[in-house]
Design goal:
CATH class of the largest domain: Alpha Beta
Helix content: 40-55%
Distance between the termini: 184 Å
Number of helices: 6
Order of helices and strands: HEEEEEEEEHHHEHH
Radius of gyration: 58 Å
Strand content: 15-25%
Shape: rod-shaped
CATH architecture of the largest domain: 2-Layer Sandwich
């Protein structure tokens, strides 16, 4: 019996020792920090990861906090833009417990160590700050000249000004901008008007450029035509001068000029492999008649009456 009692006492002492050791130790992960509070109300922040010791049981308590970024999202909220457009806007907030022991203790005091309670209050603050989007026009929120970053900065400033102690608001972003059906129709109509205006401006610019090109081409064509007419007139005048000189020379040798024209006619008529039947008594084919009469210059002449002016027929000439 005595051995059994000793065994029970030893087991009970071991159990109490384990419980005492368990209640007097705690661990802090690398992504956490802890606030240790003694029974007298004195608190301190523990940030070093690893195993730590404290007073056992109710003599000291430990509350741990995640020091990573926390995410809060707002519901879709209707916002009227500066130009009267109705939008549904949703935003998100990244926050964390403030750096520094004073901020950590202030967070612990304000929210009782509950991240969920802090997130709930921040969600309300974010929902209220979304109204800052109303200070922008619709075309400043979407499109190539978007000022969405400025709108997000204003929302962040609104959240930071809500007086949440121990909290560091890191970043605000607009995750959705939804157009209600009525606003969609209005926006599409306005976009269509803008596109029509741009199209008309481009059409007017194209017409102006086309008119300028046409005017320039007409001017250049008139200039080229005028130059060509002047050049043709100079060529014609020069040709007339040369022709007049040739005509005067031919007048002095009219019989030779007629003979040369007969030869040209013969060359044109007998070109190529051609069988030609003609009357050799008529010019210029009389040149083929070896019995044709000749003039004083020895040029064969057609029958009487067809001789060139100034040429006399010599009968009996070989």
């Amino acid at each position: 019996m005595k051995n059994k009692a000793t065994l029970l006492v030893g087991f009970a002492a071991l159990l109490v020792g384990v419980l005492l050791l368990y209640s007097a130790t705690y661990t802090v992960r690398f992504n956490e920090f802890a606030i240790r509070t003694r029974i007298d109300g004195d608190s301190m922040v523990v940030r070093e990861a690893g195993l730590h010791f404290k007073l056992p049981f109710v003599f000291a308590s430990v509350v741990k906090f995640d020091k990573r970024l926390q995410l809060v999202e707002s519901p879709l909220k209707t916002v009227q833009t500066k130009d009267g457009q109705q939008l549904l806007v949703q935003a998100y907030l990244l926050w964390k417990v403030g750096d520094g022991d004073d901020k950590a203790l202030a967070f612990f005091t304000s929210y009782g160590g509950s991240l969920d309670q802090a997130s709930s209050q921040l969600k309300s603050a974010l929902d209220g700050a979304i109204s800052e989007v109303g200070g922008f026009r619709f075309d400043q929120l979407v499109g190539p000249e978007s000022r969405l970053a400025d709108a997000e900065a204003r929302i962040l400033a609104g959240v930071q000004g809500s007086g949440k102690v121990g909290i560091e608001s890191v970043r605000v972003g607009i995750s959705q901008v939804v157009l209600p059906p009525k606003t969609t129709i209005s926006v599409l109509s306005r976009m269509a008007e803008v596109q029509n205006t741009i199209a008309k401006l481009e059409e007017a610019r194209g017409s102006s450029e086309a008119a300028a090109i046409t005017s320039q081409a007409t001017s250049q064509a008139d200039l080229i035509r005028h130059f060509a007419e002047q050049w043709a007139a100079r060529i014609e005048a020069r040709g007339n001068e040369e022709a007049a000189a040739s005509y005067e020379e031919m007048k002095q040798h009219a019989d030779l000029a007629v003979f040369l024209s007969w030869l040209d006619a013969m060359k044109s008529g007998l070109r190529g492999s051609t069988t030609f039947v003609t009357d050799t008594t008529k010019a210029p084919f009389h040149l083929l008649n070896i019995d044709a009469q000749t003039g004083p210059t020895g040029i064969p002449l057609p029958p009487a009456g067809l001789a060139p002016q100034g040429e006399q027929v010599v009968k009996g000439a070989p």
